[in-house]
Amino acid sequence: MNTELFIANRLAVDTSGQKTIARPILRISVYGIALSLAVMIISICTVTGFKSEIRRKLIGFGAHIQILNYDSNSSFETKPISRHQPFTAIIDTLPGIKHVQIYATKPGIMKSKDEIQGAVVKGISSDFDWSFFRENLVEGESFQVDDSINRPWVTSSTVSANTCCMKSVSFLI
């Protein structure tokens, strides 16, 4: 005999076949457990969705893999490495590698009328992949980088009421 079924029948039905007072309490508890499981499943799905969106944005601004010069410098400015490395030809041929691009970072300070904020400026070259930025650009346009001419374009992110968005603006440098 199934022990759980025996105990459940004894709580829900009296020995004379009459319904007991425990039956509505059992239904309320079953509905409560079902509702709590549904809420937990919805919250886990929401957190998983947020996690994947945050991961996608972080990878979009950076990369899955970044090759940097190894030094004990703890600032945002790293020493450059030569773009002519023997492993770059091998990396381009590996399966799963979509694009290899060269960049440089430089820390700086941005000042407005009433605030001073630290910033890290990322310099790009003509081989920059604009696909992520075009998806998230809400104002302005992406610009073409020529290796021979310095152009005074900056793309910056702002925070709006709904989400983080990116604006492309022109500054005279």
Separation, N- and C-terminal Cα atoms: 84 Å
What does the overall shape look like? elongated
* Unreliable segments of 5+ consecutive residues: 167-173
Oligomer class: single chain
User: DSSP strand (E) fraction?
Assistant: 15-25%
The H/E string reads: HHHEEHEEE
**Largest pleated sheet:** 3 strands, mixed
Helix count equals 4
Q: On the 0-100 scale, what is the average pLDDT?
A: 77
Name the helicity range: 25-40%
What is the gyration radius calculated from CA atoms? 29 Å
What structural class do you assign from the helix and strand content? alpha+beta
Strand count: 5
**Tally of structural domains:** 3
Spatially, the strands of the biggest sheet line up as: 3-5-4
Overview in brief:
The chain has 173 residues and is α+β, with helices and mostly antiparallel strands. It is built from 4 helices and 5 strands, in the order H-H-H-E-E-H-E-E-E.
Notes on the protein architecture:
With 173 residues, the protein is an alpha+beta fold. It folds into three domains: 3-60, no CATH class; 64-127, no CATH class; 130-173, no CATH class. The protein has helices at residues 3-12, 22-61, 87-93, 131-136, and strands spanning 103-111, 116-124, 137-139, 153-159, 164-170. The strands form two sheets. It has a three-stranded mixed beta sheet with strand order 3-5-4. Strands 1-2 form a two-stranded antiparallel sheet. It is elongated, with a radius of gyration of 29 Å.
Q: What secondary-structure arrangement, pairings included, does this model have?
A:
Blueprint: H1 3-12, H2 22-61, H3 87-93, E1 103-111, E2 116-124, H4 131-136, E3 137-139, E4 153-159, E5 164-170
Parallel strand pairs: 3-5
Antiparallel strand pairs: 1-2, 4-5
